[in-house]
Amino acid sequence: MHPRLANWISQGKYTSFNGLSIFYRVLGEGPALLILHGYPFNGFDFEKLMDSLAERFTIILPDMPGMGFSDKPENHEYSFEEMADVYSAVLKELQTTEVHMLAHDLGDSVVQELLARDQEKTNLFTIRSVAFLNGGLFSDVYRPRRMQVLLSKSPAFLGSFISRSLTKKMVIRATSEVFGKYTKPSTELEEIFWDILNYKNGKRITYLLGRLVFAKLKYQSRWITAMQRTTIPLSFINGPADPNSGILMANRYMELLPNGNVYLLGKNIGHWPQIEAPEETLQKFYDFHSSLEK
User: Fold this and answer.
1) How many CA atoms lie within 13 A of 258 on its CB side?
2) Does this model's pTM top 0.85?
């Protein structure tokens, strides 16, 4: 395992949720900030933001079931409901009743589920604000990559076979495609990504998690309605060069939530703002929180 990952794990804790071991980190001081990572890696995606954020917030950063350093069972039904339940359970364990949120990729969808629950008054905590990073908020303008479609829409036996057959070269190529052309992952980061994916033999279940990309369709009406009706301050920090959820997603966000606070990053920033442009991403995030104070 890469030393940076070993150090990351050494600073974390584990909790149990319905028989699953869930890894999480807590650090910093100040108002609680729940960070929700994306697919297919984990909270380490936010490593470059941690030191700065920890000066202003108490960061709570769990790894979702099936990803990162949490359990990755194969005979398991992964769902947005379960992931929302996991985050809720971690907040309950930490006795956190008010929280800001920062989400990326698949984490955006989990936040949408939590916003819908907020409208339904079923959360046991108060959401103070939400900052979305690039992710498939609106399925009609989301552009999945070929590998995503192949993994997600194949019959289960074929999806399982493809997942087990994935090579490092294939995973890195698919990941690099959604980075900006000038901000591709370094060789070191490629090694780290590969280590995270293979932790607890996670590569074998990539097709199970990948299916959530298309499972979002049945939630769209409920989720979008919740976003439009909520009084919780929302923002969207967007890398416009992302072929999956870049400028098209930002434009749709502005159409559906005209007062939703869109912050566009540099024109060549892609799907991973927190990795590709950490300082710019932090500045936009702080700009949003400064607007809350005003």
Assistant:
1) 1
2) yes
